[in-house]
Amino acid sequence: MIDEILSFNRDFVARKAYEPFVTDKYPSKKLAVLTCMDTRLTELLPQALGLRNGDAKIIRNAGGGVLFEADSAIRSLLVAIYELGVEEVMVVHHSGCGACHMSYAEFKPHFLERGIPEEVLAAWEKWGIAEWLEGFHDTEASVRRTVEAVRSHSLMPKDIVVRGFIIDSVTGALTEVDCPENGCRCGCGGEHEEGCGCGGHDGEACGCGGGEGHHCHHGEGEECHHGDSEGGHCHHGGGCRRHGAQAAARVDAMSWAFDRVSVAIRPYLGGADDPAARAEARKALEPFQDEIAALDYYQRSGLWQQDYEADEAGRLPADIRRSVLSQDGLYNLLEEIGFVSKTN
Ligand code: ZN
After folding, report:
1. What is the 205 CA–ligand 1 centroid distance (Å)?
2. Are 142 and 37 members of one domain?
3. pLDDT for residue 235
């Protein structure tokens, strides 16, 4: 195939077919689009958005998301903004995305079949390949998370406009996803309010477990169909329809936070006896204070235990992200954070 492409290319240049595309490197619409590498979007997306050569920086990866602070998508956006004059960013995920439901459990047999040795995979597992190759499970939530990750990035100028969309992979129709300013990082669409104790989330769509404060109505008497209010929490786990859905959203959101924090701290594990290494680890964890607070609350409030038991009993949906429920995983992570937090 590549040889065919090379011969086409020689002909393309010879007949000067490039002439209609000549432009410079500065995007004339001062726009960047972060989207998926899906082949259905290659021509459809620019045409459906009315973008021509020279109009916009289009950044593509599997899923169109941002996984961590130093993600290459962020790097590209920073270049587009600081060097090339971009002022607005569209995050565009799409229907039927292959990165939805992607998981390392499915990748692993393929790696082995293609001759990647088990010990190489073991090293990558230590690094965090499972989180790295994990897809998202809710396209809207993924758009919100990505918009929030771009907006709240510590190197992002505050005047950059960032909006989120889902494009129909067949018709090209764009649907805007409501991404509130100061929205929470878990992608639930809930609004951030100080003091709710859940580390940056509020609103019942969040499912993060921040139910203790007065802002949040999770599990209160009149809203729980089982009538068992018992303070802020429903004790029906996944057995109650309403709170089962909340539990699933909460586990997904907490797993997302768990994965991001795990990846951030991983390079510093084992160096906790060295004050300099602890300082570096604290620096690496700085952008994740909301996530850490939410995870800490999740464990202290007993919600982790409740969700863990619901999952063991098979009451949570099969296809949610659930890394936070791995045995001792959250406990160990919080312990590690405790170690590196020591400043002496
Ligand atoms: Zn996709």
Report:
1. 25
2. yes
3. 36
- Please indicate, yes or no, whether residues 164 and 279 belong to a single structural domain of this protein: no
How many whole angstroms from 66 Cα to the centroid of ligand 1? 13
State the distance from the centre of ligand 1 to the C-alpha of 36, rounded, in angstroms.
5
Torsion over CA: 112, 115, 117, 123 (sign) = negative
Tell me how far the alpha carbon of residue 324 lies from the centroid of ligand 1, in angstroms. Answer: 25
Q: Which whole-number Å values give the CA distances from 11 to 8, 19, 100, in the listed order?
A: 5, 14, 39
| Cα 318 to ligand 1 centroid, rounded to whole Å | 21
* Locus of tokens 């850490």: 292
pLDDT digits (tens, 9 = 90+) for 125-144: 888 888 888 888 788 888 99
Q: How far is the C-alpha of 95 from the C-alpha of 197, rounded, in Å?
A: 35
Residue 189 CA to ligand 1 center (angstroms) comes to: 21
Q: Predicted confidence band at 321 (pLDDT cuts at 50, 70, 90)?
A: confident
Confidence of residue 84 (pLDDT cuts 50, 70, 90): very high
Between the CA of 252 and the centroid of ligand 1 the distance, in Å, is 20
190 domain-assigned: no
Task: Report how far ligand 1's centroid is from the alpha carbon of 130 (Å).
Answer: 19
Q: Per-residue pLDDT for 286 more than 60?
A: yes
Q: Is 184 exposed, middle or buried (0-12, 13-18, 19+ CB in 10 A)?
A: buried
The reply to whether 182 falls in a domain is no
From ligand 1's centre to the CA of 20, what distance in Å? 29
**Gap from CA of 249 to ligand 1 centroid (Å):** 22
Which tens digit of pLDDT belongs to each residue from 27-82? 999 999 999 999 999 999 999 999 999 999 999 999 999 988 888 999 999 999 99
Whether residues 227 and 335 fall in one domain: yes
239 in a structural domain = yes
Token readout for 276 is 């300099």
* Position with higher pLDDT, 222 vs 11: 11
312 neighbors 272 (Cβ within 8 angstroms): no
The token pair that represents 43 in the structure block: 């021509």
- Please give the distance, rounded to the nearest whole angstrom, from the Cα atom of residue 39 to the centre of ligand 1: 8
How many Å lie between the centroid of ligand 1 and the Cα of residue 16?
A: 33
